[in-house]
Amino acid sequence: MKQIKVLAQFYVDLLVKLGIVRFSLLLALALVALAVVVQIGVTLALQGEVHNIDIVRSVFFGLLITPWAVYFLSVVVDQLEDSRQRLSKLVSKLEEMRSRDMQLNTQLQVNITQLNQEIEEREKAEEAREIAMHDLENEVYQRENAQLELAEQSALLKSFLDASPDLIYYRNEKGEFSGCNRAMAELTGKTEKGLVGLTPWDVYSEEAAIKIVETDEQVFQQNVSLTYEQWLEYPDGRKAVFELRKVPFYRRDGRRLGLMGFGRDITERKQYQDAQEKASRDKTAFISTISHELRTPLNGIVGLSRMLLETPLNDEQRGYMRTVHVSAITLGNIFNDIIDMDKSDRRRLELMPKPLDFNEFVTEMDNISSLMAEQKGLRFDLERLTKLPAFIEVDSTRLRQVLWNLIGNATKFTKEGGVILSVSSEIFEHEAEITFDVEDSGIGIPASEVDKIFTMYYQVKQGSDNLHAVGTGIGLAVSRQLVQLMGGDILVTSDIGEGSTFTVTIRVPLVEAVVEEEIMPVVPQASLSILMVEDIELNITVAKALLESLGHEVTVAMRGDEALAMFDPESFDLVLLDIQLPDMTGFDIAQALRKKYDYLPALVALTANVISDKNEYIEKGMDEALSKPLSVKAITDVIQRLVLTCPLDDFDGDEEIETIEPVSDAQPAVVVEHSNNEMFNQLLDLEMLESYVEIVGTKPVHESIAMFEKMMPDYIAILDSNMTAKDKDGIKFEAHKIKGAAGSIGLKHIQQVAQKAQSPELPAWWENINDWVDEIKNGYAHDLNVLREWVAEQEKAK
């Protein structure tokens, strides 16, 4: 195979070397020679001899196939040459490629070396990166922890701010909100995000925004903090008063960013201040309640002592009885005077000096003080140290109040021994200086307490002794003020265990004589025809029973149009007009009547509200105004002044006249010792109830209680619906009806609560109205039971 390749290569090389022509001729000769040789050999082999023709044939055959052989070989050679050339080129390329591969290999080796270096560098860089990443991770971790701590601190600070009940907010110098806490969001009704970018004009009412913007400008212009109070309104209509403080807010570089605001709800503080003022008034109410409780037995004492004074008595008995009578009247005057505790202020406390038989006054003090001392088994002595003036001008009621207080204290704090009242005087031309010394043998007063005993509400404490102060702590304070108004003073000296001496000195004018005041009889009154316009059935029942018990005829109208339709000026002597009616007011009725008629009977307003100024009622057409529930004294006084203006002598002898006695059936007032007296005083209007029971008895009270109990569920249901709808006018109207109904049967506590509920003008009314309504709903049944208990005790006492 290898030889064939060599021959083929030789053939190709020869063809290339000789060229195609010469190679063809050479090939033709070779073929002719080959043909001749083959012909001769074959012919010899077959025939044994060679002829010329055979040689010719051979030459001819050689010449015949030579072109084809040449062509064939030429083509083959050409193809081979082309293949060779291509192969050579391919080899050249392969060489080039090999050379290039070698170069590339060399470059690759270089690259590998560089790559290895780079890998090493990268490995080192990776190690450095890992170290850096680790450091970075630590830094990130630390930053994350710092951010978490900062976030926690921010969240904690936000929680603190949100947990604060105070308002906290920020505003920039444009007046726009930049942030706030939850309390501020609740006040404005917006979220913190919703509040950001808004101004006070967008958040508050115009009235509130004006003041807020003005104070903001003051902070910005003056660069100072500002504190003031302002009422703000919640989205639900609740109002609260806040103490607002605004301070400028700066960056670290000193540039001002805006202001920070803080607001503290001081509504409770305001309510506390109101409560303090109310407490002061409650002290008055407390004394008033006591006076009311004692008024009925005092009336009995006055009536019985007056009746006994008209019976045959010896001089000693008459003296005692006169002292009882005068003392009861004076005590009643004292109760009336001390109802208003504001009078304990010297600027408002007044004296009413009148001529006084001073010797008789001293004798009365002796009689009363002896009885007081005798009740405790003590001795009482009166010593007239000098000649006393016959008649002086002084407020005897106040002077008795001072001396009774001192003698009462002396008796209270003395266990054994006695009390001495010494009276002396120094008489001048037109006045006298009178000195009273009240000396006791009691427990005495510590030196450290002497300067404090004249302080209002102060009580001396004697912890080591069973004796201790039990009063209100106002007696000595008021007494000193009274004495100072009389131009004098009270001094005290005391030793522990030895007793005390109070010295009262006054300067009073001298007068000639005292005119005795006669005991005036009860004024008789005629039976009247009265038109009462009232829409609450319970009020009608109570007032009608009272008026009919006084002998009057009562016609009732429950609406204004009904009253106008039935009114005839000739048929009625008195018209009682409720102010609030379903269709119109009492003022509307009064104005309509005055336009229609030239002559009218007296028009008297009935109202459950507190009457602060009667002129307001008179200016609107009324002749008088009375508070509900009606009292015997108030209605009889109005009838006497407005209806029975003629004297008794002008009555015709045939005219029916009824004398109004203070107690029904001409019986003296019954004194009832209530075991629950304090509760009765707190919950019930005892003055009204006692007067009412004395006139009409207890049966109408039971009927009124049953009617009230039947009406209240409807009142409560309507009140609840108004509360749900937040209908202020509806709440006010329904509370007014409840107040009137409660007052008609003497439920003082419910009446007072309803008065608050019907007064939207009160501070923080919305904040308190739910409590007041709940107090009415939950308390009226209990108060009704207390009223039933009181009525039962009255029935037992009779």
UniProtKB/TrEMBL annotation:
Regions that span the bilayer: 20-46, 58-77
PTM annotation: Activation requires a sequential transfer of a phosphate group from a His in the primary transmitter domain, to an Asp in the receiver domain and to a His in the secondary transmitter domain.
Topology class, membrane: Multi-pass membrane protein
Location(s), subcellular: Cell inner membrane
Phosphohistidine modification, residue list: H292, H736
Gene Ontology, cellular component aspect: plasma membrane
Modified residues (4-aspartylphosphate): D578
HPt domain boundaries: 697-790
Record field: catalytic activity: ATP + protein L-histidine = ADP + protein N-phospho-L-histidine
Main localization, broad class: membrane
Name this protein carries in UniProt: Aerobic respiration control sensor protein
Organism encoding this protein: Photobacterium frigidiphilum
